[in-house]
Amino acid sequence: MAPFRATITVRFGDVDRAGIVYYPRFLNYIHIALEEYFLEVVGIAYPDLIQEHRLAFPTVHLEMDFMRPLRYGDRVGVEVIPEKLGTTSATWRYRLFRPEESEPAAVGCQVTVCTNMDSFEKREIPDWLRAKLSEE
Amino acid sequence: MAPFRATITVRFGDVDRAGIVYYPRFLNYIHIALEEYFLEVVGIAYPDLIQEHRLAFPTVHLEMDFMRPLRYGDRVGVEVIPEKLGTTSATWRYRLFRPEESEPAAVGCQVTVCTNMDSFEKREIPDWLRAKLSEE
Amino acid sequence: MAPFRATITVRFGDVDRAGIVYYPRFLNYIHIALEEYFLEVVGIAYPDLIQEHRLAFPTVHLEMDFMRPLRYGDRVGVEVIPEKLGTTSATWRYRLFRPEESEPAAVGCQVTVCTNMDSFEKREIPDWLRAKLSEE
Amino acid sequence: MAPFRATITVRFGDVDRAGIVYYPRFLNYIHIALEEYFLEVVGIAYPDLIQEHRLAFPTVHLEMDFMRPLRYGDRVGVEVIPEKLGTTSATWRYRLFRPEESEPAAVGCQVTVCTNMDSFEKREIPDWLRAKLSEE
User: Cα(C53)–Cα(A2) distance, rounded to whole angstroms?
Assistant: First the structure.
């Protein structure tokens, strides 16, 4: 099955003085794509996850390779690929594509940990959420 | 008395593709200068104000004139001038200077309102804080 | 005729520790809405304006009133209303709405000046662009 | 020899709704620390490197581990440790510390590539810069 793909437009405020996306903003893009993934695929809005269920998935490890620049105005396709669901952790892969290119502009891997938003302690991914995360 | 002046370095991530500071980031600069003003002049750290006293000063009105660009690497002087202390509101003026220039690069005016961080209701500026804010 | 309205989702990275949009990011929103306005209504992509026509519209004056907070996950409607087209300047009004609210969460006014991206000098708005800007 | 350490204050605009630094902003911090390293240790301002020498060091690979959160108001120490100087690449390690903690809050590794700012092609690190980068 084709991976989920969010589309994000590179905005004026995202590019640096070389006219390309400043690399910290790639991380904003993958976070937005993950928020879209939760909404569209997992079936729960990330704001609800945080505000109603008091759960969050902060990042404990991140790796990213940057192969080609993203430019102002690009409609970037960001693929979100769930890689591993542990007891408390979820690992995600990302591939970012410029329009009409088959080679990714960047690829990344991110390990997140299920965390109680009140105590800030890590916790097991609850069954109801695990079921949703495993479904697709 | 000379106004309080914070100094802020223009960072790579602040400039746009024209090599000048993208105007929304001027607002980050005045917020940082206000945080420095609280610490240095008012004598209370803004994080403590929020976290311990449960008070914040969100912005209800903002005006800004942009006269000349700020450039990458500039050490910008940001003057913070308390203009008016109302029952619930505090009004601030700002002047931003490039190094060794006597004409400001930008000037601004900001009205903030004392707000209870738990209820999000506006409230009177408490006497202890009013005393500190009136002192200088 | 109804004003042009862009829709912007409030992202995790946009909210502050009070869970509401940090006010400098309102300016990112109005810039994104203006970029959408150029694409959809004026009929020219802002990146092309900058990169091919070497024109930009930096901000020289900004005013904004903030009436109610925007929250994480809100789909914000941002109306862009062209107010005045001068020889070199263009003035824009903005109204930001939370979903299903008829009172704006914020309103703003921004004066921009047509600028040659190579010399950074202000210049007359060229006739072809003036025609497009006057059309709607 | 003790590694170079830049100090960065966590600002209001850096923290998320959990009151901790949103992880993409860790990357802003390491970029600021690298800019300080160039100024203080290498002896050339990064803006001059870009604007006068037309050189930049975009990131091609990044790894980061996040061990404990940074909080609003923290004065964060960011160590910059040059790890490897290749023909065209420079590899840097980073360790971020909260005040008075001996265990890092985060560690990172970043591979950057010397790039001609006009052609965007990678190029050999010029001898004069290699000498400076090797010195400390």
Answer: 39
Contacts of residue A117, defined as CB under 8 A and 6 or more positions apart, other chains included, come to A50, A54, A55, A56, D18
CA–CA separation, A100 vs D42, rounded Å? 41
The interface predicted TM-score of the complex, written ipTM, equals 0.93
The domain that contains C13 carries what CATH number? 3.10.129.10
Number of folded domains that form chain A = 1
Range of the domain at A120: 4-134
Amino acid letter for position B87: T
Partners of chain C (3+ Cβ pairs below 8 A): A, B, D
Chain-chain contact of D15 with C16 (C-beta, under 8 angstroms): yes
User: Given phi > 0 = left and psi -120 to 50 = alpha, else beta, which region is B120?
Assistant: left
- How many Cα atoms within 13 Å fall on the side-chain side of residue B35? 21
Asked whether residue D1 carries a pLDDT value surpassing 80, the answer given is no
Chain pair A-C, CB pairs under 8 angstroms: 36
For A38-97, the pLDDT digits (tens) are 999 999 999 999 989 999 999 999 999 999 999 999 999 999 999 999 999 999 999 999
Give the model confidence (pLDDT) of C18-72 as tens digits: 789 999 999 999 999 999 999 999 999 999 999 899 999 999 999 999 999 999 9
